[in-house]
Amino acid sequence: MFLDLYPRFWDVRNTISPVKEFVGHTKVPFISAQDDITNIGVIIDVSSRIGKEEKVSIEIAIQTINNASSNKHKLVLHVRDTGVNPLQAYMAAEDLIKKTKVNAIIGMETWQEAVLVAELANQAQVPILSFAAPSITPPLTSMRWLFLVRLTNNDTLQMQCVASIVGSYGWRRVIGIYEDDGYGTTCSGTLTLLSDALKAVGAEIEHSAAFPPLSSLSDPKSFIREELEKLYDKQSRVFIIVGSSLELATQIITQAKESGLMRRDSVWITEDSITNQFDTEDNYEPQIYALRSYDTLSTLAFALEKSSNRTTLLENILSSNFSGLSGQIKFTNGELSRSTTYEVVNVLGKKYIVLKSWSAEYEFSDNVIDKMVQVKSTVGAVMQVLGNRVYWPGGLLSRPPLGWVMPSDANPMVIGIPSKTTFEKFVQVNKDGEDPTGFCIDVFNKARERLYYGLPHSFKPIDGKYDELIEMVYNKSKTVYYCKSVDAVVGDFTILANRSNYVDFTQPYAESALTMVVPVKSKEKVWLFTKPFNSTMWLAISFVFIYTMFVLWFLERRSNPDFTGPWKNQLSTALWFTFSTLCFAHREDLRNNFARVVMVVWLFVVFVVTASYTASLTSMLTAQHLEPTISDIATLRRSNSPVGCDGDSFVRKYAVDVLGFHPNNIINVMNEFDYPDEFKSGKIKAALLELPYERVFISRYGKEYQVTDDAHRFGGLDFVSNL
């Protein structure tokens, strides 16, 4: 009822043993103090299931190699028991090197054992072929332990496989379970790899639960049950067991089922170190440990065949390149370099079903080796990459498990909402605290209706700042019992970088930006009739007017009696005649042909000027021209003018830290209806409002206020949770 990972290896029935290639060789020059014996040391835990499989596999390989030889040189095994104790492994290696004079040592199931034995091997220059590798390979491993050869891969690819499963189903948080052996290096490295791989798919480890070795517990069942009960308060129901013995993992899974942690929407995943030991009805073939042990001795035998001393033996081991029972045997920097393909299996009692294969190159596929039918997973999109026939802990579900605690009528999701908001159109709480209304509540209800599962919930009005409400969600995720906490908050919350560090946001449902609203002032209308033209234009028109007047007077004064008489009469007549042409009201006749030509030009100029003037003046009279009292934020800041904002939101801190306003110049305004009074009283000269609030404010008081300056963009308005 849970998912496991198997490292995929070649079918033994279709594989020709590489040891058969020894047949036909006339001489095998084994390195030994004796002419006919090559001593090989083996350090394993002979009492464990893995150790027993490895011992049998190594003995079969020795027998095959010795029978294939056509001379008297034989490989002799010297097996030592570690007892799951690194110090005992060290003493066994010391005995094998100094007393037995072995030419190579194989085994070591843990990295702690391998490191201690490798220190001795460096001094004695004895090659060590280890079954263990660190979770994260240190960069100088091959230089520090020259004679250490690792016949396995680290956990990087396996943790990427686990993260691919988590990411493809959209699970955001997981709980890591591991066995703390007292050394901590392997478990911490595996958890680090898992954490890094999960971050790449948008997930994280919510909590890590450590369990001591089963042998150190006097009452294992009670202890494990108590530790599992501590996980009830966690939101996640995706459990990943890494770095654990089979015995401990079995007890954890058994107690988890009895404790109710394997119900609907729960997910359990184990890594290959546990899966490879499951005793299933299909387990009739040699497991990976046996195949790897056989390949290890084959690698050593090939190298011994071509070696004349210990230095060349190490070189020949590292230059190995052949297809073994467990896959391709080839080394890079002292470590097996093949790319492992994992099978994701679904364990059901004593049986398991292979769901998909996974590799770094093809990700999920039906058959990486044969068909290479790829099933790409997309981060953020829920895809059933393992198929529709997965038996989850809750049974065969019609949908993927949610991976987190589902609310119920008895235990609904507690959703916090701000009890007091500056703009009530977004969230408004009734006096009884029930059935809140507003745009944000409507968006939440519409989104809830589109879920494919029910979401029992209750609203909890909270009197506090917006950052305090977000902190309550964070406290819930970290189980801070001494602080108030809620499962999520709904309202007009803005996505900010610092908030995203410890809570999750939904997709934004409204645009968010910081704008500045200021009062407007009307332009003076006393001299409005002069505004259609600027001073230069008025000066040019005046000059043309006077010039035309004198030209007409000069041309008409001798032949036209209307332009005769005293000088004052002549000038006044010329002035009146020229001016009256502006409105085509002149009565005097022109008798000079040159004067008529001048008049045609003048009338054309008059027509153009009057048309332009009339259009401009009409526009000024019909459109209301308002000017902001303050043009931009920089001007407001330089003038040390007071500015109003919502004191419960992030805007006050943003105005001080980012925009550079002095804290004393920022006035808290607690209600949208208080802004006009604050403006009229002169307590504030401008208001810093987020874009949705600005639109509400302008729609109500648009004639008296204006938005100025460029908006400072944010992530948008959305809801907050930690699911």
By CATH reckoning, the class of the largest domain would read: Alpha Beta
How many domains, in number, for the residues?
5
Question: Helicity, in percent?
Answer: 25-40%
Main sheet record:
9 strands, mixed
**Secondary structure tally, helices:** 20
- Give the overall average pLDDT: 80
- Cross-sheet strand order for the largest sheet: 8-7-9-10-1-14-15-16-17
In CATH terms, what is the architecture of the largest domain? 3-Layer(aba) Sandwich
Tell me the overall shape: elongated
CATH third-level topology of the largest domain: Rossmann fold
Through-space gap between termini: 24 Å
What percentage of the residues does DSSP assign to strands (E)?
15-25%
Molecular structure report:
One of its GO terms (cellular component) is membrane. Residues 414-677 form the Ionotropic glutamate receptor C-terminal domain. This is Ionotropic glutamate receptor C-terminal domain-containing protein. It is found in: Membrane. This protein is of the alpha/beta class and 723 residues long. The chain has 5 domains: 10-153 and 284-325, Response regulator (Rossmann fold); 156-270 and 341-396, Rossmann fold (3-Layer(aba) Sandwich); 413-508, Periplasmic binding protein-like II (D-Maltodextrin-Binding Protein, domain 2); 528-622; 626-718, Periplasmic binding protein-like II (D-Maltodextrin-Binding Protein, domain 2), CATH 3.40.190.10. It has a 9-stranded mixed sheet. A hairpin with a 2-residue loop joins β18 (391-392) and β19. It is elongated, with a radius of gyration of 43 Å. Mean pLDDT is 80; it is low at 9-35 and 368-382.
